[in-house]
Amino acid sequence: MKLKSFALTSVTFCFTAICGTSAAQAASLTTVLDGVSNIRGISFSPDGSLYATEPGIGGNGNCQPSPSAIFQPLCAGNTGSLVKLSPNGTKTRLLNNFVSLAEQPSGNQGAGIQDLQFDSKGNAYLLTGFAGYPGNRDKETLALGSKYPIPETQLKVFPPSTPDKVLNAPELGKLYKVDLNTGSLNSIFDFGKYEIINNPDGQDVVTNPFDMAINGDTAYVVDGGGNAAYKIKLDGSDAQAIAIPKKTLSASLLPSAPPGQELAPELVEALPGLVEQLPGGKIAVQSVPTGGAIGPDGALYVGEYTGFPYPEDQSRIFRIGDDGKPEVFLDGFTHITDLTFDEEGNLLVLQFSDNSQLEGDLRFLPGSLIKVAPDGTRTTLVAAGEGLESAAGIDIGPDGKIYISKRGVGPELGSVVRVDSSEPVPEPASILGVVTAAGLGAAAKMKRKRKELAKAEIA
User: Of 162, 256, 395, 438, whose CB count within 10 A is highest?
Assistant: First the structure.
């Protein structure tokens, strides 16, 4: 579908302290699915079934150091699946024993089946992650990678594997059309090979396809490892990669050692591969885009998690319109993992945690859900501490309710909850918030377009 024009003519940075975020009434959450390992994306099929992706817990296969896990090794196994919850409440697993990467022996930080979305005809498309240097995936990509440059810092911190240590995981880092009845996969696009050859952001050669939206005949994929957003025709043609820029911050945000102690040697060694040191006491932090959604104006909106040192209140939301250039739409969030738009044109922003991921157990951090109205008003629908621990994915069901996957780190901890709460009365937004979202408000009066066109037809 051709992207429509957008009325916004200036970019406004809308920090919480400036625009304000009103508090909602205490949310009521109802668990509809649980027992999923390292749960990620969720989506509804045209028949009303809920699907949750289960990246799995890896296994005892070969391992690779992963920037996504601050260079802890992720090891391969066949423990991933796709979990289906039918409208009658029946829970089944599809694509069982799918290849998976995760830390060992904890089984945390899984990478594998990342997202599932449907087009307007009901066809299903599957996205798989990777979370590392794509040359480590298999011998074919290792050979390909030997022909292309790798940044010096990457060679020092996480160099390519040797041929006998590749992960033997050719299914990862790809977009597929999937037959959910037979489990057959038809490969559409290979992010691993594209990253090796093109390296869209010009930084480390890393890929981790994380989230997907479908609109018309096009898939929109955000790659948290490659720091890029992709537009790909569903037949695999016309692929376009758009780099998401780094963010410049004060170097004072880097974690300091306790009195009398130094930073762990492995962290000091890894710093050049995590942040870029700039003059004047500044650092450049990688974006790590993790959530994407199609807005009422037809543009792609991309939320970022932000990389090490995982600062609070520094995550941005970008808008990518017809010109393919990412522009900051909103700022002042923390660890965004997913986005979606509701029927009224409100932007729903899911935060993995309100606190830096360095400040607690990664499995149980205090996540939250924020609604940004078309006039720029921010309202917290589910506050930190109200049950969205380590929130991972969001979707709106056929019933119009918000569904969220949470506890996105750890074996069998993941669940999907439905948000059952009365609509709060938000506080008025400041003029800055109104300016920021003015064009979005006008576009919201058009026919709703959420993450995939199919949902608009069945809601």
Answer: 395
If DSSP codes are grouped into helix, strand and coil, which group holds residue 167? coil
3-state secondary structure of 304: strand
As given in the structure block, the two tokens for residue 236 are 């695999």
At CA 309, angle to CA 306 and CA 310, rounded to 5? Answer: 40
Q: Helix or strand or coil: residue 251?
A: helix
Look up residue 294 and give its two tokens. 């199609």
- Residue pair 55/392 in contact (Cβ under 8 Å)? The answer is no
For tokens 């796709």, what's the residue?
82
What is the identity of the amino acid at 80?
A: G
pLDDT computed for residue 396 by the predictor? 97
Q: Which two tokens stand for residue 386?
A: 């109200």
Task: Compute the distance between CA of residue 416 and CA of residue 396 in angstroms, rounded to an integer.
Answer: 12
Query: How confident is the model at residue 260, as a pLDDT?
Result: 52
Dist. CA 439–CA 455, nearest whole Å: 23
Closest by CA position to 402, among listed 348, 362, 324: 348
Decide: helix, strand or coil at residue 239.
Answer: coil
The C-alpha atoms of residue 166 and residue 97 are separated, in whole angstroms, by 19
Amino acid 267: pLDDT: 55
b/e per residue 68-102 (b: at least 16 CB within 10 A): bbbbbbbbbbbbbbbbbbeeeeeeeebbeebbbbb
Cis peptide before 428 (omega within 30 of 0): no
Alpha-helical segments (H) within 69-151: 139-145
| CB-based contacts of 320, cutoff 8 Å, min separation 6 | 229, 242, 299, 300, 301, 302, 326, 327
Residues contacting residue 35 through CB under 8 Å, at least 6 positions apart: 412, 414, 415
Q: Supply angle C-alpha 190, 195, 200, rounded to 5.
A: 125
Q: What is the mean pLDDT of each run of 10 residues along the chain (459 residues)?
A: 28 42 72 98 97 98 92 96 97 98 97 98 97 97 98 90 97 98 97 98 96 97 98 94 96 70 54 80 94 97 96 97 96 98 97 95 97 96 96 97 98 98 47 41 41 38
Q: What is the pLDDT of residue 301?
A: 98
Helical segments of 378-452, H only:
431-436, 438-443
Helix (H) or strand (E) holding 195: helix 191-198
Contacts (Cβ under 8 Å, ≥6 apart) of 318: 229, 244, 289, 301, 302, 303, 304, 326, 327, 328, 329
